[in-house]
Amino acid sequence: MSGLKEDAAEVGQGSGREFLVVDGLHAGYGDVRVLHGVGLSVGRGEICAILGPNGAGKTTLLRALCGMVRGRGTVQLDGTSLSGRSPDSVARLGVAHVPEGRGTFMPLSVEENLRLGAFARRDRAAVQDDLDRVYGYFPVLKDRLKQAAGSLSGGEQQMLAIGRALMLRPRLLLLDEPSLGLAPLVTRELFSIVQSINQEERTTVVVVEQNAHLALGIAGQAHVLETGRIVLSGSAADIRADEQVAQSYLGYRI
Length: 254
Description:
The protein is α/β, with parallel strands linked by helices and 254 residues long. The chain has a domain at 1-86 and 211-254: P-loop containing nucleotide triphosphate hydrolases (Rossmann fold, 3-Layer(aba) Sandwich).
């Protein structure tokens, strides 16, 4: 397993260009502990995949990063601590979270959903420009502008959820299971758009995804979670190419 790290203590000791740094993160719900000392780092402008089986703590990790779940340990974004902040405070620092299940406001129109994504911004004059930018990535949303979000297809709702997140002008985009319930063709299109957003806007992306092959195809690095602990870290290419890793941690054969 050349290039891969199986010692969680080594994670986060990078080259000094880390944008997101998580160290010793413990989090859970009430008395139930889900994350046990998670540590990782993500470079500015990178795509990082978080992989692992159901129940490993992937969703809890994203919720902890955006302030939805309180924990102990440290989370820093570009040198600024996110620890202990409320979700709206984290959002104002440029962190956009697209939750599992999309979280769209079904009775509201596509345009209203998108404008809600800019709630934390003060540069209201630039919001229309960013609407046009979102329509550039997702032209179908412009065609559905006045349509209720609840009437969109699953793929269109996922595009709307990502588009709403982009209205924040995020520095860090957190995506939780973006392929859930989508047809393979729609999923590939969506991941291609996420890759374009990353490349064109230099937005740092952390994506939790059950479709390991797809996530590793666009990511630069990856971390594998198991029972609330990082058990493996390395480049996405190395993890994708290693048959032992695929069978042991990701549940498929190469």
